[in-house]
Specification:
Layout lengths: L13 H8 L1 H4 L2 E3 L14 E5 L4 E5 L35
Parallel strand pairs: 1-2
Antiparallel strand pairs: 2-3
């Protein structure tokens, strides 16, 4: 997959650029732009990233810089594994 060219820089939504200047407004803020890149200015902020149904709380650390916001808001539900069947249920025919 081709990457974004270097001379363009990383994509950050205009809404987030305004919020970056006022750091206190970014704390616990809802973000709908999953395609925006995380810049170093967002480190140590807690944001809520919208995944299409509910906002998911995410703490931005130095390891997440350069990634997209959408990488940390999964849109799929986790299915429990079928191997852990409780003691009340028996496998096989009735």
């Amino acid at each position: 997959m081709p990457r974004r060219s270097i001379w363009k820089g990383s994509f950050v939504d205009a809404f987030l650029l305004r919020m970056k200047k006022k750091r206190d407004l970014l704390l616990n803020r809802k973000i709908w732009s999953c395609r925006s890149s995380i810049s170093p200015d967002f480190v140590d902020c807690s944001v809520r990233i919208y995944n299409g149904k509910t906002p998911i709380r995410c703490k931005i650390t130095e390891g997440k810089v350069g990634h997209k916001f959408g990488e940390f808001a999964s849109t799929r539900k986790r299915k429990p594994s079928r191997t852990n069947i409780g003691p009340g249920r028996k496998k096989g025919k009735k």
